[in-house]
Amino acid sequence: MSSAIVMPKVGLTMTEGKIVEWKKGVGDRVEKGETVFVFETEKVSYDVEAAQSGFLASIIVSEGETVAVGTEVGLLDQAPGGSARPQPAAAPAPIPQADVSRAAAAHAVAAPAVAHAAGGVSSKIRATPLARRIAKANGLDLSQVAAASPSVRLKKLDVESFLAARATHAQAVPASPAAAASQVAAASQNADGRLVRLTSMREIIARKMLASTVDAAQAYMVVSVDAGNLVEARQRLMPSIEKQTGVRPTLTDLLAKIVAVAIGRHPVMNTRWTPEGILWLDAVHMGIATALDDGLVVPVIADVGTKKLSAIATERHELIESARAGKLPPERMKGSTFTISSLGMFGVEEFSAIINQPESAILAIGAIIDTPVVRDGAVVVRPVMKLTLTYDHRIIDGAKAAAFVATLKDVVEEPLLALA
């Protein structure tokens, strides 16, 4: 008896998911609770665990394919080689010319000048079902691809790239087989790199960041602030909040609250550009830029201006832990009206961030550095932090941005006024 493995719905807004990896191959034993496949949506990857034990009888949706929520992606059978539904035998789609050109450029050095005679695909080579179907349809021995590709498990892109490179080389193969072999050997010696297929997260980041630089008139403003009182405020509040919530408040928590207070005094910072006009938003929903091992996500703390520091710290901790575990619901990454991004933990003193569309501004937070400054005519060492505001000049004029930055500096240097 077989049971369907389907694309799950994670969060209220999810409509589709992209399978990035099957952790099991057809025929493999799967234990209940063991990860069967990994999928991506909204810049976050999720592990899908088996609801029961059995054997993976069929993979219906291959790696790299995107399907709607609820789509059957595989079959789990109670016994090996049981009543598995046969996989669809549809012929693979032709490779788009643009993809052929890119693949050929990336993999030309790895393709042999003359293909092996059409024959069966080796079952000893680890490959996805889709990769095997494409190879079989093109009379390609997967051992050739394995020799040219760095992948442990060959995928669709490896086979398509190999075929594209082979086609390119076929047009320029020397008449002599010896000359052909020499040409391939020389190319192999000059190989210098490998192609890594884009993840859904990287595709989304690239698209959004490029769109932001094109769609907004981004301008920048930097201010240095004395962070002594900010650091002291955290130290004073930490024992009480940690005892109450079990979470240590960070400087990011304090700054999220402080920035919300400053925005409240300068509501133009909480706006969006639309074709119909400028949208003025009431609540401040704070995005917290968070680095992951393979990308960046922006969890959102809703209505941050009305929340106590203890609530902000708790919510921020839960959101970031969920993101790092790949379990952050997509709706918790939507609706931000302003974003803060900190690289201070890496020792970065100053940087400019790209606006998180459709917002109008983002604040980049640098490291706190002990710096000689003049106070009352004397040189003293103070903990100084640089804040860089990136703002959309279509909406926010320089004078208004400067007024916001001035207020922000005042509140950071006297944080208890905001946290009271």
Structural commentary:
The chain has 420 residues and is an alpha+beta fold. It has three domains: 76 residues, RNA polymerase II/Efflux pump adaptor protein, barrel-sandwich hybrid domain (OB fold (Dihydrolipoamide Acetyltransferase, E2P), Beta Barrel); 93 residues, no CATH class; 219 residues, Chloramphenicol Acetyltransferase (2-Layer Sandwich). 33% of the residues lie in helices and 25% in strands. The strands form five sheets. A six-stranded mixed sheet has the order 9-18-17-16-12-15. The N and C termini lie far apart (63 Å).
Using brief descriptors, characterize the structure shown:
single chain, 420 residues, alpha+beta, OB fold (Dihydrolipoamide Acetyltransferase, E2P), Chloramphenicol Acetyltransferase, 3 domains, 6-stranded mixed sheet, 4-stranded antiparallel sheet
